Amino acid sequence: xxAVLAAVLAASLAGCSSTGGKRAEExxxxxxxxxxxxxxPRWTFAxxxxxxxxxxxxxxxQKGAKQAADKDNINFLYSHSDEGQQQAExxxxxxxxxxxxxxxxxAKPDSMKTVVAKAVKAGIPVITVNSGSAESKAFGALTHxxxxxxxxxxxxxxxxxxxxxxxxxxxxxxxxxxxxEQRCAxxxxxxxxxxxxxxxDGTNMPDVQASIEAKLDSDKSIDAVVTLGAPFAAxxxxxxxxxxSEAEIDTFDLNASVxxxxxDKNLGFAVDQQPYLQGYExxxxxxxxxxxxxxxxxxxxxxxGPQVITRDDADALAEYTNRGTR
Length: 326
Description:
The protein has helices at residues 2-32, 56-71, 84-96, 109-121, 149-162, 178-190, 205-218, 230-243, 256-263, 275-292, 311-322; strands at 44-49, 75-80, 101-104, 126-129, 143-146, 167-172, 194-199, 224-227, 248-252, 270-272, 302-303, 307-309. It is α/β, with parallel strands linked by helices. Strand 1, helix 2 (56-71) and strand 2 form a beta-alpha-beta unit.
């Protein structure tokens, strides 16, 4: 009798497992083909970020957001401006369209506070992403998804200590971005050597390279340069070579070029905050809130980083960086 019961239970469980696995596979296939995996209403979610033109980091965020939107039957709208007032105006446009959910970055929170409050007052659920973890809750957002920039900076300082660096240049490519200031300040907090900030015009890559080159050329004691975005790491590598410097180039964020640089030893390490995950989870959490009133974080940010990536990790991540999702 016991043997028969065990066999029946085993068959039942196998059937459930088989059915659940098959459904999961079907949902994955639907999402991969851009088809919805749910039958909820076709809500419209808008994402408005502080990205400048041509910023590959935000391309990765968008890939995650769009894949989640396909899966969740969401009409996804994206807009951006690296000027705080213009970003706020784009948020107002989304409010005027009566979107069903809003995702915003708060790199320049003073410019965004009033318009985010308008969205919340209009009954639009808001999730902040990437920048603004400190302001997110006070502004009325459901949660924040990203890395704590101060903690990420502290991780960089620790890694620089491990590598026995003594004098570091921290390159800020967007003035007024509070997250960038927090990164360099966090690194300076834990770093045992001396650290100097260098402000550059991130919209002008030749200027970025020339500014870094001038500093490296005038001060040969600089033994590390930390850039705050993957595209700027390449400019720093070129500046190092032209200046004849021995400084190690390290960077925040990861892409295919950075992964190659790590593998080729042109870069020392990178700090990954998983932008694909930020976009994907922002859309998915808004859908969960609309569908089931779910909220993650319990009032605290949902962290996607930092993860220190070195040459040892580059090969394992190459497949994902090459397809543009890491």
